[in-house]
């Protein structure tokens, strides 16, 4: 994976190496190869973000109540599915979090599916990308907890329902919350990496039809893992904003 440079990554390195090195200098670091600072997973993330922006920019002026197109139908199904799931998991007030849930789901789904296209790789099969999504979720649900309940009330639930158990409950709760980004990262990364390796292995061993079946399985796993990641995010948000402690 890391040993070869994808054509899109090479394109960025050939024409945009300077901006990449400038950005890295802003955060106090530098690329291992300053002449080729762009890595595959970052290039694939940029491609996914660009595809999403262009897709929605093209779709918005074409939205229609009377004559919706196929793409609008697909996105409406995703929206309704996420909205109904959020209402069941988060409950009252779930609509205010729907933009984050939808953004997370669409980004992870498109990132997962990108690996099905020849000459591209799924950025989610690189651990840094799932980790970034997991940390974003960690920050988001904690911020929502502070906003919804206030700092004191939100921190109080780490002590548990009984004051006498606080010395025991606080370390347990802290470990539980700190392990969430790790579990989200490993689950998404491991599944996408394994799926990619299985598909590549069969492409090199057997005729085309059998790898196509595994690519179909890869598509299913892409949808499933995007949903699981988003569902767990909903669960964490629900626990953070819940008032009955």
List the helices and strands and how they pair.
Blueprint: H1 7-15, H2 17-26, H3 40-59, H4 70-89, H5 98-114, H6 128-149, H7 151-156, H8 166-203, H9 209-241
Helix pairs in contact: 3-5, 5-9, 6-8, 6-9, 8-9
Helix content: over 70%
Average of the residue pLDDT scores: 89
Taking the sheet with the most strands, its summary is: none
Radius of gyration: 21 Å
Backbone structural class: mainly alpha
Shape: globular
N-to-C SSE string, H for helix and E for strand: HHHHHHHHH
Uncertain segments of ≥5 residues (pLDDT<50)? Answer: none
The tally of helices reads 9
Strand content: under 5%
Distance between the termini: 47 Å
Number of strands: 0
Can you give keywords for this protein?
245 residues; mainly alpha; 0% strand
Descriptive report:
With 245 residues, the chain is mostly helical. It contains 9 helices and no strands.
Short summary:
The chain is mainly alpha-helical. It contains nine helices and no strands.
């Amino acid at each position: 994976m890391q040993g070869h440079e994808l054509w899109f990554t090479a394109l960025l390195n050939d024409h945009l190496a300077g901006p990449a090195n400038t950005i890295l200098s802003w955060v106090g670091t530098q690329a291992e190869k300053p002449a080729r600072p762009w890595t595959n997973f970052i290039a694939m993330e940029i491609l996914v973000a660009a595809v999403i922006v262009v897709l929605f920019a093209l779709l918005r002026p074409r939205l229609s109540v009377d004559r919706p197109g196929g793409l609008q139908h697909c996105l409406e199904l995703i929206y309704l599915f996420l909205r109904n799931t959020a209402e069941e998991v988060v409950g009252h007030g779930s609509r205010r979090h729907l933009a984050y849930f939808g953004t997370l789901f669409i980004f992870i789904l498109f990132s997962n599916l990108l690996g099905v296209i020849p000459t591209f790789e799924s950025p989610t099969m690189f651990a840094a990308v799932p980790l970034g999504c997991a940390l974003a979720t960690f920050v988001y649900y904690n911020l929502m907890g502070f906003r919804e309940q206030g700092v004191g009330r939100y921190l109080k639930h780490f002590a548990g329902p009984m004051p006498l158990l606080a010395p025991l409950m606080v370390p347990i709760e802290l470990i539980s919350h700190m392990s969430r980004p790790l579990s989200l990262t490993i689950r998404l990364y491991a599944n996408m990496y394994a799926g990619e390796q299985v598909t590549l292995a069969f492409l090199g061993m057997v005729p085309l039809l059998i790898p196509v079946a595994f690519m179909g399985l890869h598509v299913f796993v892409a949808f499933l893992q995007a949903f699981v990641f988003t569902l767990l995010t909903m669960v964490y948000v629900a626990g953070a904003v819940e008032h009955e402690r």
